[in-house]
Design goal:
Length: 380
């Protein structure tokens, strides 16, 4: 009898394990796991604003999140209160037309997220303060669009499924890849050989994961638009590579990534590629023919000279922690709105130069009142 009980117990445990594998498998049809939430299409309130979601990494996570980003020295340090990330700028300057979702604390620990998914509930991880439709998480790599623990695209689409009509004509922006191919060691390999096997494999894998996320969004929400943002070249913020051949090799690797995104966009009129490196070059320029830094200064207003250097006050394009500064993010938001309108005919109001300087006044005023000296540690 004891032997029979052991056999029955082992069989029962095996069944539970098998069920867990099925429930947590990314490839399992949603039908088998039950609806993630009740679909409320009939009662959806149409605000007239365009739904806007974000998938990505720290370039898109809100700077004023104090749950994940609790370090007071992060994202602007002494100037953090007036250092805004681009989604925060977008919400403030075009919140009347674009809906990023309610600001609040969203997400749970990863194991709670697995549990919620297994029982057909909406899930996301980790917990952070942000807009409801901003799924970008610092440190994310391309595989986490579809894979554990973040499953950004899968979990966003589950949320979109609860209000499908509201996402008709909406936008999902995907901005990811720099943590895969922008690391110093990857760039260094590229600098020596533009066809180096590891960087090439990382680039191809990343484009493939983005392609899967696009396919999922387009399959479940065929009237939703997708924006694919090209990768920035982290060599522009470094002095480690200063020869024409090194810079050309790194650029070739970045081109391979961007051309992969261009190919995805060319196959679907609802998908648009946004060239981030071209935008950067239009403002701050590029290196000279020998590969040495030769960046311009951006002048927005008397006394507002912004250089491609790093430091936390707004005169620097880049923050001390390597993320875009408030001027970069505000000008990028201006460019984004114009690009969205041109790509999808959304009738968005352009962000004027006057609005840009008006928005940045507080940031520069805080800097002018401070006795702190700016840090200058990056490419000059």
């Amino acid at each position: 009898m004891a032997r029979l009980n052991k056999v029955l117990l082992a069989t029962f445990c095996g069944a539970l394990i098998a069920a867990g594998v099925i429930l947590f498998s990314p490839g399992v049809p949603r039908l088998l796991r039950g609806p993630s939430a009740t679909v409320e299409a009939a009662s959806e309130a149409q605000s007239g604003r365009i739904r806007f979601a974000v998938l990505g990494d720290s370039d898109s996570q809100s700077y004023h999140d104090t749950l994940m980003l609790g370090d007071p020295g992060a994202r602007g340090g002494p100037w953090r209160a007036t250092t805004w990330q681009w989604t925060e700028v977008l919400a403030r300057l075009r919140g009347d037309q674009i809906d990023l979702g309610e600001w609040g604390a969203w997400g749970t620990g990863k194991y709670r997220a697995y549990f919620d998914e297994a029982f057909g509930r909406l899930a996301r991880t980790p917990r952070k303060y942000d807009y409801r439709y901003n799924f970008a998480i610092s440190g994310s790599i391309c595989s986490q669009l579809m894979g554990h623990p973040l499953r950004q695209a899968i979990r966003l689409v589950d949320l979109m499924d609860t209000e499908p009509q509201a996402w008709r004509g909406g936008i999902v922006l995907i901005r990811i890849g720099v943590n895969d191919i922008g690391a110093h060691d990857v760039l260094d390999e590229l600098s020596r050989d533009r066809n180096a096997s590891r960087p090439t494999a990382l680039i191809n894998a990343c484009v493939g994961e983005i392609g899967k996320a696009v396919a999922l969004i387009r399959m479940r929400h065929p009237d939703t638009n997708v924006v694919l943002v090209g990768v920035l070249n982290n060599a522009d913020q470094s002095v480690d590579w200063q020869s024409a051949s090194e810079i050309a090799n790194i650029d070739a690797g970045m081109d391979r990534f961007d051309n992969g995104l261009r190919k995805l966009a060319a196959a679907d009129r609802h998908v648009y590629f946004l060239d981030d490196r071209a935008w950067f070059e239009s403002l701050w320029g590029k290196r000279d023919e020998q590969g040495r830094p030769l960046y311009k200064t951006v002048h927005l207003s008397p006394g507002w000279a912004i250089t491609n250097t790093s430091g936390d006050d707004p005169h620097h394009a880049v923050l001390s922690d390597g993320h875009a500064g408030v001027v970069w993010n505000t000008l990028w938001t201006q460019h984004l709105v114009a690009s969205l309108d041109a790509a999808f005919g959304l009738h968005l109001k352009p962000i004027t130069d006057g609005e840009v300087t008006g928005f940045l006044k507080q940031s520069f005023a805080v800097r002018a009142q401070s006795d702190l000296s700016p840090l200058t540690t990056s490419a000059k």
